[in-house]
Design brief:
This protein has an eight-stranded mixed β-sheet, sandwiched between helices. Residues 1-9 and 268-282 have low confidence and may be disordered. Helix content is 34%, strand content 17%. The chain is an alpha/beta fold. Helix 3 (94-99) links the parallel strand 3 (88-93) and strand 4. The protein has one domain: Glycerol-3-phosphate (1)-acyltransferase. The longest helix is centred in the C-terminal third of the chain and has 25 residues, at 208-232. Helix 5 (158-168) crosses helix 6.
Length: 282
């Protein structure tokens, strides 16, 4: 029996989600089409194997960076690709969720992000979801607001409070960072670059303050690593999940080039010396 979400007077702090696996599959299909339409490719890099995320027996917390409107769409596609059988939940501004109620069917629940008293009811709510499902997942943007990828990471306490509470109950979670960038490379459309990274649990995993430092440091390191890959413009460091790969320019142009026996990709490799190690173009 789910517990009330906080003391009397706080039970209405949460607008519950309504996880529906079939609806999530449909929304993931739609999200992939949306990404394919608006981006050249979605590419994934990781510092450890992510194939085991779906079967991970521990509760899973995914700390997602938050720089763009596209972040939730990226998270849906990545969740479908890396952990399709896991039930998930995610917080969202309650006012916006009331406008777009269908998001509740993919596990999104509503909170007031500016209410300092919402952390307790949110933790209670997520703990109930963690008990309901065999392999539960929380996907959360700890920054709680849009933040430039170059800005220092300042996380709100919700994810840390939950990780510490799970540890105290003997269900220490696996916490994974997911950084996202949207740079333009050589195509008229931007790239969607994603990097995942496992965060090692702090020595005192029962303390929220220890998890807070771990999450902020892990998100910052992961974002910096992704920034380096973005600057390098090397597709070899990524696995393409959506899109036509590094050799694609445009379907018509690509077909015409293949008929003529000429390369379809734009090759910048011979020009790197102009901008790397020379202080710029001279």
């Amino acid at each position: 029996m789910p517990r009330p979400h906080g003391p009397a007077g706080r039970r209405d702090a949460i607008l519950p989600g309504r996880w529906n696996a079939r609806f999530f599959s449909f929304f993931a299909w739609y999200s992939r089409r949306l990404v394919a339409k608006h981006f050249h490719a979605l590419r994934l890099s990781c510092d450890s194997c992510t194939e085991g995320l779906d079967a991970e027996p521990r509760p899973l917390i995914v700390a997602l960076s938050h720089s763009s409107w596209w972040d939730p769409i990226a998270a849906v596609v990545m969740k479908d690709a890396l952990m399709p059988s896991r039930a998930s939940c995610s917080p969202m501004d309650r006012v916006q969720l009331e406008r777009f109620g269908f998001f509740r069917k993919i596990g999104i629940f509503g909170i007031d992000p500016d209410d300092p008293g919402a952390a307790g009811p949110m933790t209670d709510y997520v703990m109930d979801r963690m008990r309901e499902h065999l392999r539960p997942t929380l996907i959360i943007t700890p920054q709680g607001r849009f933040a430039d990828v170059r800005a220092p990471v300042e996380a709100r306490p919700g994810a840390a409070l939950l990780a510490a509470r799970l540890a105290r109950e003997g269900r220490a979670p696996r916490v994974v960072g997911m950084a996202v960038e949207y740079p333009f490379w050589i195509d008229r459309r931007p790239e969607m670059l994603v990097r995942t990274s496992d965060f090692a649990a702090p020595a005192d995993s029962s303390r929220a303050s220890a998890w807070q430092r771990t999450i902020e440091r892990g998100m910052a390191d992961n974002a910096a690593a992704l920034a380096g890959l973005s600057v390098a413009r090397e597709t070899s460091g990524f696995r393409t999940l959506v899109g036509r790969g590094s050799g694609a320019v445009h379907p018509v142009f690509d077909a015409w080039a293949r008929m003529r026996g000429t390369p379809t990709a734009i090759d910048m490799s011979g020009r790197r010396g102009l901008v790397q190690g020379t202080g710029g173009v001279r």
